[in-house]
Amino acid sequence: IFPLVFTLGIAQTGLNAEQMANGENMTHLMNLQMYRISVMGGAGATLGLILLMMRSKVSEYRTIGKLSLVPGICSINEPVIFGLPIVLNPIMAIPFLIAPVVNLLLTYFAQKVGLIGLGFIIDPSFTPFVAQAYLSSMDWRNVVFTLFLVIVSMVIYYPFFKVLEKNRLAKED
What is d(CA 18, CA 21) in angstroms, rounded to the nearest whole number? Predict the structure, then answer.
């Protein structure tokens, strides 16, 4: 679905830019900013998971978390996808699917009520997520909101990661 979502996001961002240039209120909520937030940390909004991994009791998870942090900040999550792995992992599949949906819903409502600015600038891909949050809307509130979403992602991943960690520790004993 990437081509559909990305195309819709770019088109809606362009319409917001046009409204902004004409001095009108922006009205298009499904803009590229929404797409960027859905993949914050990479597909599955894994940045929260990476932060949890960095404090894991399993040394391998800590190492993978540390190695995944910089790419994760730039929404590249292959190190955690294949290093943990999330691929073919039924425990991690649940938060991997839930976290981006929750982030999108929260972002939609935050834009709808005016808590954060709407995206009207097409920012470069793989820019660190905090920079993207600001560059897409020129609104500092979006930076604070994306940091909040990382915490939300951590909360979603936490119970599933703890099960994975507990299983791994049991195998080591």
Answer: 5
What value, to the nearest 5°, has the Cα angle with vertex 142 and ends 141 and 143? 90
Pick from 3, 97, 10, 93: nearest CA to 45: 97
- Please write the tens of the pLDDT for every residue from 125-173: 778 888 888 988 899 999 999 999 999 999 999 999 999 999 999 987 6
- Taking the model in full, what pTM does it have? 0.88
Residues 6+ positions from 163 with CB-CB distance below 8 Å: 91
Q: How many helices (H) and strands (E) does the chain have?
A: 8, 0
Closest CA to 45 of 166, 121, 157: 157
Tokens representing residue 122 in the block: 């097409």
Only one residue has tokens 């190190």, namely 79
**If pLDDT is split at 50, 70 and 90, which confidence band does 68 have?**
very high
Q: Are 13 and 33 in contact (CB under 8 A)?
A: yes
Which residue shows structure tokens 């004993």? 173
Q: How many C-beta atoms lie closer than 10 Å to residue 87's C-beta?
A: 12
Query: The tokens 């691929």 sit on which residue?
Result: 87
d(CA 28, CA 13): 7
